[in-house]
# Entry
Amino acid sequence: MADAPAFEIARVGVLDGVPHGFFGSAGGVHQFGYGGPGDEQAIRQFRSEAASAILPGAPLAAPHQVHSPEVVTVTRQWPDAAEGRPVADAVVTDRRDIVLGIVTADCGPVLLADPQAGVVGAAHAGWKGGNSGVLENTIDAMETIGAARANIAAALGPMIAQQSYEVDAPFREHFTADDERHFADAPEREGKARWHFDLAGYIAARLSAAGIARIEDIAHDTFARAESYHSFRRASQQGQPTYGRQLSAIAVPR
# Structure
């Protein structure tokens, strides 16, 4: 890990003044997730270095993600290891000495902050988590520790774009008539109807409905930008290993 290229970090204006970043893969070299090949200690060190790039000297608090609506409020540092981390898909905190993180590889990373209250959050919002309320639960958890919904800004990080996200009828059945606008017709394949799903638009709509007024989408397509991001769908289609993950991280300003 010590010889890996420098971090590629994208940031957004809506979180200006808040330590945050969406880390790229540096052409596939940077891999931030546990569960694939590689030495666990080396990955832990790499994740620690990424956290320090957001907030010098601060440890990373990243949950064990399972596509759930569960949120953990981080009140203390926990060991960043492959096993034993809290099981959840979002984390929030008001501590100024911890970096929150989540990993993704096509799903939507969402970073949230109320700088006035000193409260931040990070959510892993794939269609399953988004559909089951992980975003709303994250906002509620932020409010519980002092955030004001009207002051929360949200940034949508790199995720699979609509033109790259083909879905079928069983997928579409998970959504309601109110979600029709997030589906666009795609050519039939194998004699079956297909659509392209707008995950970023769906996430933004859920956030807006929850009362978040300031939302910015970085609009980086993980599937199409192979030089910058891991993509589970791209790797699956190409018969490559699917363990690659990128990190999104945020911290309360000191």
Observations:
- The helical segments are 40-54, 127-132, 134-144, 169-172, 199-209, 232-237.
- The first strand starts at residue 9 and ends at 10.
